[in-house]
Design a protein that fits this description.
Oligomer: single chain
CATH topology: 3-methyladenine DNA Glycosylase, Chain A
Largest sheet: 8 strands, antiparallel
Structural class: alpha+beta
Number of helices: 5
Radius of gyration: 16 Å
Helix content: 10-25%
CATH architecture: Roll
């Protein structure tokens, strides 16, 4: 196994992890072989008001964003409602897989971040496929390389990620991140398709990547 990202990488605030995951390689070892892709798009999610107090010390975060998250929390985050059976892994240690179903059809993969009991996570939105492309195409029923992993539901289907991986330690096989090379150019934009705090610049994209899910939303 190539060098995996350690737990300490994920034991930081979600926006820092979301940005730094760009260019890293998500790997899933399956019965049909190794499936992998470079991360090109992510979104960061924080917790309810008062659950991320360390943000007050973040001189590197834009002041308006920091103040808003401290005052209002992140209404778009699943953790905003408090602990539930669905989101309980967000309240645990970092580097755990948070996989959930949307629209009753598509599974989405997140990795938890920050210290335990400070519910944060990063949604994996798009990958550039690098290994196991024929198997990904078979799983998706698509042949276009750009379309295989250009969305959170698409990448889960292509890599065979399901809710069976819920709570998995993503520093270990069969589902983990290899260190790779961080993206040289990163663009921060508002998140996509969220309800609440739609304008927060917490979506991160490898600038110019043709494998991202869509163009940056207009501010």
């Amino acid at each position: 196994m190539a060098r995996a990202l350690p737990t300490s990488f994920f034991a930081r605030d979600a926006d820092l992890v979301a940005r730094d995951l760009l260019g890293r390689v998500l790997v899933h070892e399956t019965a049909h072989g190794r499936l992998a892709g470079r991360v090109v798009e992510t979104e960061a999610y924080f917790g309810p008001p008062g659950r991320n107090p360390q943000l007050a010390q973040r001189a590197d975060m834009p002041a308006r964003l920091r103040a808003r998250l401290l005052r209002e929390g992140d209404p778009a985050a699943h953790s905003f409602v408090g602990v539930t059976e669905r989101n309980r892994v967000m309240y645990g240690p970092p580097a755990r897989a948070y996989v959930y179903l949307i629209y009753g059809v598509h599974e989405c993969l997140n990795v938890t971040t920050g210290p335990s009991d400070e519910p944060q996570a990063v949604l994996l939105r798009a990958l550039e496929p690098t290994e196991g492309v024929p198997e990904m195409a078979r799983r998706r029923g698509r042949s276009s390389l750009r379309d295989l992993c250009s969305g959170p539901g698409k990448l889960c289907k292509a890599l065979g990620v399901t809710r069976a991986q819920y709570g998995h330690d993503m520093t270990e096989p069969p589902l983990w991140f290899e260190a790779g090379e961080p993206a040289a150019r990163v663009e921060a934009t508002p998140r996509v398709g969220v309800v609440g705090a739609e304008d927060l610049p917490l979506r991160f994209v490898e600038k110019g990547s043709p494998f991202a899910s869509r163009r940056a939303p207009q501010r």
